[in-house]
Amino acid sequence: MLSISPIPAFSDNYIWHLQQGDEHWVVDPGEADPVIKALQGASLNGILITHHHPDHTGGIAPLVKKYQCPVLGPASIAGVTTPLTGGGVVTVLGMPLGVCNIPGHTLDHLALILREPVSGSSVQTHLFCGDTLFAAGCGRLFEGTPEQMFHSLAKLSALDATTRVYCAHEYTLDNLHFANTVEPGNTAIAQRLASCQALRDANEPTLPSTIALELATNPFLRCKVPEIMKSAARHAGHPNPSTLDQVALFALLREWKDHF
Length: 260
Description:
By secondary structure, the protein is an alpha/beta fold. The chain has helices at residues 33-39, 54-57, 60-67, 146-157, 172-182, 187-201, 211-217, 226-236, 246-258; strands at 2-9, 13-20, 23-27, 46-48, 71-73, 82-83, 89-92, 95-101, 110-117, 123-130, 133-134, 137-138, 164-167, 209-210. Helix 1 links the parallel strand 3 (23-27) and strand 4 (46-48).
């Protein structure tokens, strides 16, 4: 049976630990020591990387030195032994792992989509989205354009509603406070904020999320909602939100969040 658990790193990163039987993989190990501790003497079978930022890659070299394991990720990253490209599929833990290009946060950013067979012919999808899609938010645009990020998020939001979303940072409460400011009439946001606050008060992670929950509460996936359109335009001093397309509205929201 597949187990996916967070390994805390730095102040708010999560390194995702995938285990099935005696096989162990990690996603985006920014640090090596927390991974070694979490493995409790087990070997590491492989490393998955979503993008090149050092808080996602800093543990690669020491982990490879210790475990001699393969590294799968963007070809731009030093230490990657199996370059991944959008549209490709590889096998990880005996399951298909699909790869999707999602530029915006960085130009080399990949989404890693693991499809786990469950009962009968059913499949549970697990999305490892790095810093592109966050719980109730999205990543900053360090290299890409608003249009790239908008379309990358659209790809992710089109996944099955039950898809579990494993992003790489514990930013949920801050993102939900922003979402509540943008769309104060959305009761689902208020409910999620209360439940996530209770989790953090208990020192528990707010992740994983689901695509269904993101579609209901994440303003960056809800640019068509009239209340969000009006909020974004009003904050930017734009007199007529109906003249703005969704990419323009997304850009206004992202700029607002950058200074929130």
